[in-house]
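User: Hello, can you help with two protein structures?

Assistant: Certainly.
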Amino acid sequence: MSSPFKKTLKIAIPLLLGIGLIYYQYSSFSSEQLKTIKSYFKNANYFYVLLSVLISLFGYWSRAYRWKYSLQHLGYQPKFYNSFFAVCISYLMNLTIPRSGEFTRAVILKKYENIAFDKGFGTIVAERVVDFLIFLLFVITAFVLQFNKLSDFIFSNISPNKILLLATIGFVSFCAFLLVWRWAKWPIILKIKSKFNGLIEGMTSVFKMKEKWKYLFHSFFIWFCYLMMFYVCIFSLEETATMSFDIVIMGFIFGSLAVGFTNGGIGAFPISIAKVLLLYGIAEDIGTALGWIIWTSQTLLTIILGLTSYLFLNIFNKN
């Protein structure tokens, strides 16, 4: 399979899935429900939407600022504006090819700050590990607070047999990978191992850096911004303004998971929000409207910041 065709598939499949989900959700509503959803958009309090966008900006800033600690530990002193622009562009790239933004960030700093790609990318992988652990705390909190509803939701959408099958496949694949990694002498494996050493150095920098507590503070602050960005948006609609915080956490968790299924969560994000809120007696059209308000505002922010950052990146580094 040719490389251009692979790239096309990486973009097209998640995008088509997202469009399919939008069509599925659109066709499942009656004309009366669609009119109601439009009215929610028309009557929403956009002060809270703008506040949500502002909070997101702090999250972008904090992510760029956190990055400097791991890079400084490796002996690099990147300019903050290059790190910030790289973060903004990476979010934009993730709207096209999921997870391509991580590579983009490392490439940008290689080009403009002469930071080795494998080490720069290693620090980004380390960030993802830390972010995953923090997200796991949200999931654990949700299970503790809403165990019955959450377990009912999972098992009503995924059968126990499928969960067992996926777990078995994952375990067997992991064992096969370990055997190949440990014993195989293929040139491609040896080359990957060589590159892997740079990644390991970048990843372990989190635990060895002098400023690790500041790094961890920003890590939690980033996720605090994510959560608050979601939380303040519920006040944009009267029908969701009285939601309890534990319901907000549930919506936030499933919305975060949905972002990984399609390009930037297109289609999947509003559906996941609507389905979760439906468990708590909030009508599906209300949940759908809230999901689209959050997704649209954050996607517009991502596009604007990404495009302007690409422009400024060249202007600021003109010399």
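That covers the first. Now for the second protein you mentioned:
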Amino acid sequence: MTATSHAASDAVSDAVPAGQAPLRVGLIGLGSMGRHHARVIRATEGMDLVAVADPGGDRFGVAGDLPLLDSVQALIDIGLDAAMVAVPTVFHEEVALALAEAGVHTMVEKPIAHDAAAGRRVAQAFSSRGLVGAVGYVERCNPALRALRERLDRGDLGEVYQVITRRQGPFPARISDVGVVKDLATHDIDLTAWVAGAPYAQISAQVAHRSGRETEDMVVATGRLTNGVIVCHEVNWLTPFKERLTIVTGEKGSFVADTLTGDLTFYANGTVPSTWDQVAAFRGVSEGDVIRYAIAKREPLAVEQEAFRDAVRGVGSRHVTMDEGVATLNVVEAVLASADSGQVITL
């Protein structure tokens, strides 16, 4: 699936064909994300959570009446149709490759692996066996971004000029193995290419280390997509408020998607002519109508799991593929390379 291979309005199925048994699903990684995946898998029609594993224990009480397993092999031995991987990033490759070898369709939390080379190995392992491999870029399932993509696809903004994202907030205690680029900024890189319908052509970035950790905690990245859209990402763990905004500007105005609230607002270019000659001579825009859309809001994780379920069933292709996950990780590595070298990186 490419960034332009489907319209955002395509509905995700919420039903299972009659006569089909639920998918036997295993979950490995019972931390901050794993506990939510467990809850959603249990609530998703057509999915049956049959096994959970985490060698570090079950501090959130996710297992319930299931035995707590200590390895991916123990999980595989239960007998699975599909699996969800929510272990720390450094273990993604090891766990995903074991599941591929066992013939288990798998979704891996973002990013696909700790580096692009590992991501390519994981993607190849699943594609070569004809298995569904997905990456958990849940922001694509946010109602605000789905509504935004739908409106862009039908031309409501006209030509798209620019995408700006701001993803800021306090440091999350759940993170221990990667910096803010591989944790948070990877969301913005994925969603920007998806929303704008084109991959990255070049990127330039600056990072900062202000919290005493080995990895970076602030990044500002600017770049250009292959279709000419310019982009800017501001991401950090050092802002004392939480912000999750995607702003898309084009010939007819700007869309602002707030993924914290799931709201989408359109700021239209004004159509009232100016009689002030100095202003009228500037080929720009003026403020027009503002519309905040009433859109259906479902939990993004539920939409994501349904998309994965449907892909495994062979009745949908709305999941984020592992090839897309690798493409995003290539850009992530280019961001870090640019910050290190001070150079613009061409992809």
